[in-house]
Amino acid sequence: MNTNRATSHSRPLRSTLAAAAALVLLLGEASLAAEDLPGLGEPVFDLQKPFFHSQTRPGHWLPTITVARDGTVLVFRDRREKGLIKVHRSEDGGRSWGKPVTVGELVEIEGDTFDDGRYNDWHHGRSILGNVIVDENTGDIMVFTTSMKPAPILYRSKDHGKTWRKEDFVIKPDAGGWLSCIMATSEPGITLRYGEEKGRLLMPTRVFVGYLNKGQNRKYYTQHYSNALYSDDRGKTWQPSAPFPETGTGEAGLAELSDGRVYFNSRTHLRPGNRRIAWSDDCGETWKDHHECKFLPDGPPNVYGCKAGLIRLPLDGQDVLVYSSPRDHTGNAREDITVRVSFDGAKTWPLKKLVHEGPGGYTWLAAGRKGTPSEGLIYLLAWENYLARFNLAWISEQGSAGADSGPAMRRTIIEPATPRMPRADTASVAELDDGRLMVVYHKYVPGKHSGHDQGKCHIWSKTSRDGGLTWDGGRMLVDVAPGDMNVQAPALLKLRSGELLLICLRAHGEGSSSTMCLFRSRDQGRTFVEESPIWKRSQGQLLQGGASCLLQLKSGRLLLPFHGGTGNQWRQKNSAWCYLSDDQGKTWWRTRDAIELPKRGAMEPSVAQVEDGTLVMSLRTQLGGPYLARSTDEGETWSEPRPSGLEGPESCTCLRRIPGTNDLVLGLSGFAARWGCND
User: Fold this and answer.
1) Taking burial as the number of CB atoms within 10 A of a residue's CB, which of 56, 218, 338, 475 is the most buried?
2) Are 460 and 437 in contact (CB under 8 A)?
3) Is 169 helix (H, G, I), strand (E, B) or coil?
4) Cis before residue 359, ω within 30 degrees of 0?
5) Is the model's pLDDT at 616 over the cut of 50?
6) Which of 557, 574, 572, 577 is nearest to 634 (CA)?
7) pTM greater than 0.85 (yes/no)
8) What is the structure's pLDDT at 304?
């Protein structure tokens, strides 16, 4: 098991957490501490608008942006009325800007790309600003010039954009005989850092079949496609990759992950829906696993898409990506530029935030450099003539101006603590068929041992229709039985059949015996019918623990981890086992071998299943931190528990798998950790 990230005082991803005084729900996808990532100190945001003080309307000029290896921020634009490419430089991280520097001239291009009215700007037959790349090997910056057909010249700077020289270069045709266009409407190129071709230059490009030449009546328009160009000789010669596996694509971005794979994110001009994604495991030469992204919008308009920004932040070993686009691809207009963040190499995109309200279409992204005034900053350049500077702390900040959907992690109170209700916790949540959330928890009442584990409490439930932001008044589901200490530790599970199972623990006497009750609902939680208990009046206190862990495995088997011993709940030596059911909870059997640890023993187990079917169990201990065990036979036997490598207090653990990934998150008091489980 490889530790990706272990963070003191951060909160677990995609989890619910019960507080001792009041029951709260943490809504959102990610929470990070300042020591995790640069830019998670004080929030930074500013907007420079207008950025260019002399410009023509969008569509008649193109910009792009990058950050030189010394941290100089470079913003390029073409001045078509003057036939020039200019660059604005900032050596203080974007706070101030020098006078624009001339990069070079726009040049004539053989062949009229007028395309019978589709692209009818005056520049056709002549180049416009193309894309830009920083060669991380040498520090050279290359700026290209292109139209629907590439120009065979580039401009190179060896002094971080202060001076430029013109030089020729070669683009090899692809298998169809077409030349790739290195357009500023794609994101800047990258230098590979991890794969077998470390040091290779890789550019997102686009092929216009037929170059959209005048007189062809858009004959080849639907055949254009994204691809990439790569160079292994410092930009003198460029080879084309295989085409992106879908036609009608263009205006793409690339990111290399720390495992050497290249992520390709493309606009589509011909189909509705989200961005088109593909991957390369051969350093950008071919593309596979093509699909529509579940998370990232493309457009509006919904059938034509929109250029977007994409950047991987320069964080060693961490695949943090930032994406920018209009907020709603189904809207009537391009507006409300929003950034989204992935912390797991594009598997999920949990954070989003509004950067600028109002009209907004094309955007470009760049990231600052470590050890320079730009460190930790993200730069967003918009076609609507503004530049935004911000950091991850600002994206994550609660309640800041410009947030479109609130903070990254939002706390909502389900059940507040009051003098008449001193404690509510140990919650479990399930999503109902109609989209509502149902939560169950135990709720304490005043009296002897009020608010303590041995105090009197009941099982309550509430539902939410807005994803957990607000909750109804609630109802009691299970009352404490006469003579019992309490009824506690509920867990709620929605079976694949749609039925709900509710379990809760009746604690008898003074915590020396228990019964694990089971209730079933066939009407989405409106009513529950009690069935045979999983165990009844144990000798010694058997406990589910505070992690509310009841789960259905891939095979359909139900698994309930628990712990216990002989004697009293607060003084007994504990071992851990599992109860298993292969008939949807009608009958249960207990695993034979116990999981043992020194001191108070193995306590409050929590279990998650990873992609290959392996089960991972986390355990509360008195040994300086949580321990972990594994099972490869669906919980019947377990490996010897070993230290997790995390230091922490004796605390209930909560282990969960992040949906859509093979990553696990473990939470305990004051701590959260995340692992990749690909091994």
Assistant:
1) 338
2) no
3) coil
4) no
5) yes
6) 557
7) no
8) 86
- Rg, Å, the chain Cα set: 29
SS3 210: helix
Q: Residue 455 carries which DSSP code?
A: S
Q: Could you give the 3-state DSSP secondary structure of residue 509?
A: coil
Reading the block at residue 103, the tokens are: 């990069």
pLDDT at 2 (0 to 100) = 33
Q: What are the residue ranges of helices labelled H in 383-539?
A: 392-396
Between CA 358 and CA 383 the distance in angstroms is: 13
Question: Can you give the residue ranges of every domain in the chain?
Answer: 2-31+410-676, 45-407
d(C-alpha 553, C-alpha 559), whole Å = 7
Spell out a b/e string for 428-440, using b for 16 or more CB atoms within 10 Å of the CB, else e: bbbeeeeebbbbb
Contacts of 104 (CB under 8 A, 6+ apart): 84, 85, 143, 145, 155, 164, 166
Distance CA 480, CA 482 (A): 7
- Where b means 16+ CB within 10 Å and e means fewer, 610-624 reads beeeebbbbbbbebe
Mean pLDDT of 251-280: 94
The 8-class DSSP code of residue 418 comes to B
For domain 45-407, the CATH architecture is 6 Propeller (2.120)
What's the pLDDT score for residue 7?
29
Residue with tokens 């470590």: 370
Phi–psi pair at 201, nearest 5 degrees: -90, 135
List, for residues 385-438, the tens digit of each pLDDT value: 999 999 988 987 753 333 333 344 556 788 887 777 788 888 999 999 988 999
- The secondary structure element, H or E, covering residue 28 is strand 23-28
* CATH topology for the 2-31+410-676 domain: Neuraminidase (2.120.10)
677 has a pLDDT exceeding 60:
no
For residue 529, give the H/E element and its range.
strand 529-535
Return the number of other C-beta atoms located less than 10 Å from residue 255's C-beta.
23
DSSP 214-248: TTSTTTTGGG-EEEEEEESSTTSEEEE-PPPSSTT
**Residue type present at position 18:** A
The residues near 452 (Cβ < 8 Å, ≥ 6 apart) are none
Structure-token pair, residue 60: 């008649």
